Structures are given as structure tokens and as C-alpha cells.
Amino acid sequence: MSLAPASGPASATAFTPRVFSGIQPSGGLTLGNYLGALKRFAGYQGGGAETIYCLVDLHALTVWQDPERLRQQTREAAAAFMAAGIDPARSILFNQSAVPAHAELAWLLSCVARVGWMDRMTQFKDKGGRDRERVSLGLYAYPALMAADILAYRATAVPVGEDQKQHLELTRDIAAKFNHDYGVDFFPLTEPVIEGAATRVMSLRDGTKKMSKSDPSDASRINLSDDADTIAQKIRKARTDAEPLPGSMEGLKDRPEARNLVNIFAALTDESPDAICARFEGQGFGAFKPALADAAVAHLAPITGRMNDLMRDPAELDRILRDGAARADVISAPIVEETRRIMGMIPKR
Ligand code: TYM
After folding, report:
1. Does ligand 1 come within 6 angstroms of the Cβ of 32?
2. Counting beta carbons within 10 angstroms of the beta carbon of residue 253, is it exposed (0 to 12), middle (13 to 18) or buried (19 or more)?
3. Stated pTM of the model
4. What is d(CA 75, CA 80) in angstroms, rounded to the nearest whole number?
5. I need a labelling partner for 162 at 20 to 30 A (CA). Which of 15, 33, 123, 212 fits?
6. Could you report the per-residue pLDDT of 172-188, keeping only the tens digit for each?
7. 201 lines ligand 1 (CB under 6 A)
């Protein structure tokens, strides 16, 4: 796992190595969230960097959420993190809204970020669509909040899927502008860590569209809460083509659906996509899909089982999140206080 030290071109500051990442609890987590991000999070624990993982409930609010469901989904996401190997004793696991640094720093950084930068965000264009005038102001300002999430901990590395790359570049731009405008070397230029075979898991119904929790078709995705039969059925029905599999990924360049399934297989089993192709060379999807379904069920069923166990004790999940928030506050409050001081606010103490 590459955890390159974050530093600016002329940075003299040695930043404490810190991994930060977040997932929106705006619906059940998908195989895309899992393979692109969550599966990789546990691997950073005990690797010499502090690990901080966040359920970004303030981000979820940028589109309407039923309040009781949001609370429930936040607990479910916390259970998913732990089921995927996040140990709350070794990592800090919390929900964003419980730590004031996020919202406060988001405002301070909104005054550094430029409207033109926000206008270029492809995710806003996609989500806002033709209805731009009617979406929430929060949806537009969202990348400044994301920069605040990361910079409130002066995080040096952020593991994410491919779709977050532009937001992380913006985070670096905001950090660099802040450092430049105030003549400091205060925020690191955080490294995005986008690695593995599944940095962009595609829909099972359309290989050109990202697998997403907001896709109206449930058949387009695998949810971490799906049972074994549902997973097998969705894989069986996944769109493919009639060609046999080639001996290497080179042969899948123009076959997005087939490429996606091979990448999913590789990410689930920690093999290379080329090794998967070599194993199934010359075979059709009649042979490949049952093997993929078996691999998916073998990998995901224990996680779903652990999630269900953890969900039986919501009070304990809430306690773990509160404990994580208190520890997150200890790191982030002084960083925001120093940011306030640098920007010219009278110190609180
Ligand atoms: P979110 O909640 O949409 O997704 C969480 C993580 O899952 C990854 N991901 C995928 N990876 C591969 N294939 C897919 N189909 C797929 N779908 C989702 C995402 O890249 C992400 O890593 N803005 C972020 C949440 C966030 C955040 C942060 C992340 C807020 N603040 C600070 C890192 C650091 C988001 O909406 O992710």
C-alpha cells in the first residue's frame, strides 16, 4: 500500500502520517463502495499512520434524507465498517456531524475555494443535472466540506475510488491556496490513494455506468446487505456479451461489461485481472458467472453476517461512534483553532 508522504512542492513541514476516508450513509453500501474503498481501509491499520474513518452524514444531507432512516443507515454503515475489519480500538470511527471541526472548517475553506473551481466539479453536474437551480446549496458547496473533512486532521493519505479523484484534487488546490494566501505551510497536499482492480465498479446492467446506491434499478448493484441467493441471482442476470473470455485484459478493451466482472472477481479474491482472464481463457459466461457468484458469496456472506450481528445492538454502535467522535475532536479542534488564528480570528482561549 503506497502511503507517500504528503508535502507541497516547497514544504518543509513533516506532517504526521494520517489516513482519512469517508462514506456517505445515504443508503445501503454497495459492492462498489466496498471494493473501491471499504475493503482497503482495514489494511492501513497498524501500518504506522493513524487511521480515521468517518460516516459523512452532513454530506448525506445535501439531498433529502428521511431523518429516522438516515440515523439507521448511519448505524448500518458503522456496522459495515466494523464487519469489514475496522477495529474501533485501532482506528477512529465516527459520524461527521458529531465533530464540530468539519462544519466550522468547511466555512473557513469556502472562503478560500473559488466558485469557478466548484463549477468544474463533474459530480455536481451529474447530480444537479438540468435541475441545477433547484438543488440544495449544500450539494454545490459539498467539495469544500469534503476538503474540510480531510484537512481538519491534516490527513496525508485518502483511500477512495476513482470517482472521488476530482474532489481530492480540489482539496489539494484549497490547501495550496490557503498556504499561499496566508504565507504558511499549514495544510498538507494530501495524496489520493486510488488502487486495486476495482477503483471503478460498474453497474451490472450497463458497463458504462458506475455502480451506485442511487441507481433506480436494484439489479444494477450488489448491496452489502444482500443475501447469498440475491447475490448469485444478480450476477447470473448481469449483462454480458456472447464472446468467450480472452487470455488477458488486453482483449477486454471494448467489452465494458465483461471487463467489469473480471475486475470484480480479481478485487474479491485479491488476484490480478490478468490471472482471472488466464484461468477462464476460452470459456464463456456460463462457466464464469457461477464461479464469480461463489467467490462473491464466500467473501461477502461473513461480512453481511457480522453486520447483522452488530446491528442487533444499536446502543453499542452509538457508544462506539460517540467514543470515536471524542477522539476525533481531540485531533481536529486544535487544527481548526490554529486555522482560525492564521485567518485573523481572536483566539477562543
Ligand atoms: P461515496 O459515499 O459516494 O462513496 C464512498 C467510497 O466508495 C467509493 N465508490 C466506488 N468505488 C468504486 N466503484 C464504485 N462504483 C464506487 N462507488 C463509490 C467512492 O470513491 C468512495 O471512496 N464524497 C465522498 C465521501 C467523502 C469523503 C470525504 C471521502 C466525504 N468526505 C473525505 C474521502 C475523504 C462520497 O460521496 O463517497
Report:
1. yes
2. exposed
3. 0.95
4. 9
5. 15
6. 999 999 999 999 999 99
7. yes
